[in-house]
Structure formats: C-alpha cells, structure tokens
Amino acid sequence: MRNLNQLKFWNFGGMYYFYFMIWALIFAFLPFWLHKTAHLDTSVSGIVFSAMAITALILEPIYGIIQDKLGLKKYLFGFVVLCLLFIGPFVQFAFIPLLQINAIFGAVVGGAFLSLCLNGGVGVVEAYIERSTRENNYEYGHVRLFGSLAGGTAAFIGGIMFVRNPYSIFWACTVSAIILAVLLWALRVKNEDTGSQEVSKEHEENPVTKENIINVFKNRSFWGFCIMMIGIATMFDVFDQQFPNYFASFFDDTSRGELVFSRITSLQIFLEAGFMVLTPWFINKIGAKNGLILAGIILFVRILGSAFLTEIWMLSFWRILASIEMPLMLISIMKYITGVFDVRLSATVYMLGFNFAKQIGITIFSYVMGILYSAIGFQNSYIVLSLIVIVFVAIGALIMKSEKQQPDFNRNLVA
C-alpha cells in the first residue's frame, strides 16, 4: 500500500511536470516564433494573445461547471490532453497556412486553439489534480512543485531547441502531451479503488445543482476573493510583462541584461520549487486568507522596491523574491477555496474566482500600464502599480471571511 501511495504521488507530480513543461515552452517562445518564424507584426501577434484571453474567458465558466459535475472523472482533463497532442502538428502544418490565407483569421483560430490547451485548459488541470491529491491525502504544494521544476527545465533547454529548430518547441509539447496522456490513463484516484466509494457515493447523492452554483455568487467571500486575485495574480503578471525590458535597460549591452535576467529567472523558479515544499505547513499555521494577504504585501514590496532601489543586484533580489510569493499565492488559493466554499464546487470557484477574474484584470490593466509606461516611465508607473496592488488587497481582505468564520461546507451545503 505504501508503494502504491508513493507511485500515485509521482504520478500526480509527473502530470504537473509535463503539463507545465508545455505551458512554459509555449509562453516563453511563442512570441519569438510569431515574430521570427511566422513573420507577424506586433499588432497581429497581439491578436493571437487576445484570442487566447477571450477564449479563456468563455471557457472558464463552462469548464468549471462541467468539471464539478464530473467530480473525479477524467473526461474533461482527457479532452485538454487531446488538444495538447495536436500542438506540434497544428503549428507545423496548419498555423502558417491559415495565417497566409488571412492573417487575422489565422491569428484568431491559432489563439483559440492554444487557449483550449493553456489559458482555458490550465484551470481544468489545476482543479482536477488539486481535488485528486486532496482525496488521496497529499499536500497540493508538494505535488505543485513539479510544475515549478518544469518551468526551470523549459527555460534551460528551450532556448537551445528554439535556436536549432523553432518548430521543435511545439513538437516537444506534443511529446510531453503523450507522456501526460499515459500518466492520466494510469492514474487511479482513491474513490475509484475497491472499497473506497464514499466520496463518489456522496457525489451521487448530492449532485451539483444550479442552485449550488448560484449560491457561490451570493457569498461575499467569493467577490472578495475575486478582488484579491486581481490585486495579486493579475498584477503579478502585469508587472512581469515589461519587467525584463526594465531590468535589461540598466545594462550597457541589453543582450547581456537579457542573459542575466534569464539566469535569475531560472534560479527563481528552482527556489520556488523548494518553497513549495515548505509553504503548505506555513499556510496551515497562519491560514489561507493571511497567506494571500502576505503574498500581496510581498508583491507590493517587489514593485515599489523596483521603483526606488534600482541597483542591478537589488532588481535581481526583487525578482528572486517572487520565489516566495508564488507558492504563497498558489497554495493559499487552493486552501482558501476548499476551506470556505462547498468543495464540490472547487473547480467552478477556482476557474471563475481566480482564472476568470485574473484574465479580466490583465485585459484592463495591461492596457492601462502600457499607457503609463509611455507617459511617465517605468519607475513612476511602478509606484502607481504598487498602490493599485495594496488597495485591491486591502479591499479583498476586508470582504473575505477567514476559513474559521465559515460553516463546514463539507457537511453543510451552501444555503
């Protein structure tokens, strides 16, 4: 039995590893591929990313409700994996011809397809594995660290692959998807084992209903959680969008700055994996809501520090500090959702409260910050951004209730 439990742990970890290997390779090298290989200008490339974001906004509510109705069944996860399998063939044989027929049409189709796998699909992957690991009594953070290791690996090998053959990145994604498919097929979660049918029986006796879903929106903590996610998750990504260019500007040779930044990022990702091991214990001590507030404070310090303390070594430190912030945010999100809301609706709350809110925030604030960067420069813009962060975090914290203030939703359904 112990060997079986260890095997399951590595199965979960492998699923995270190979999914986020795909994620990291695509998001790191798709912009270069669109520019250097597909020869798209920035406006058409922007349509690809906009299509990814818009498709995700459409998919998140649908994916969340379907996954909650499926419980621990793998069908939706399997659909995401099926889409992932076609990344290599799609980019190699279909994406370029579609762009040649009509650049805007090709960009929209390409972005929508990639969103099935990534922007939209990530919520399915995260929600399913979190639910499965919780069912098998594993700490989410201990399994999630494999995603961070995948990011570090992708950063290390992806550049070499892209220089040799730009299409190899996408075929590597297909190979990773094949391994992911095998791991998903081999996975046997606890309530599928003989003699462990309690959860599936409970799921059948208390199926997710329309009223359950509507009640999520009546819960003030849900709206506070959405505001908190805009303040932390959205602003984390918005800050990171242009920070590499800001960092490189402090070097006489910007290419040297880009190289140094890539090495710092790799270090940050591997440190992040280490903190993933320790953070669950810490969050269990302080509470998930406090973990989110602490993550917001660290982000505030990172952004404000980047505006005032601009020596290269200090800017490097601000980046490495993200290795603490990211585990705090990710693990607190999952623990807050399962501690405050009906656990049968964890996928819906995750995809709407986290992914959907985050995508809306990114759509708005990426545009706003782009204008500010041009109008008042990076440093002044970072001061404004840090204030936005602390305001959203404070408002979210005031609206959200702590886990101990909530009824036990595992036994009593949301009324």
From TrEMBL:
Superkingdom per UniProt:
Bacteria
Report the transmembrane regions from the record.
Answer: 12-34, 46-63, 75-98, 104-129, 141-163, 169-187, 222-239, 259-279, 291-310, 316-337, 349-376, 382-400
Q: What keywords were assigned to this record?
A: Cell inner membrane, Cell membrane, Membrane, Transmembrane, Transmembrane helix, Transport
- Secretion signal, residue range per the UniProt entry: none
Chief location: membrane
Membrane topology reported for the UniProt record: Multi-pass membrane protein
PANTHER family assigned? 3-PHENYLPROPIONIC ACID TRANSPORTER-RELATED (PTHR23522:SF10), BLL5896 PROTEIN (PTHR23522)
Q: What is this protein called?
A: Oligosaccharide MFS transporter
Q: Which organism is it from?
A: Metabacillus endolithicus
Q: What is the lineage of its organism?
A: Bacteria, Bacillati, Bacillota, Bacilli, Bacillales
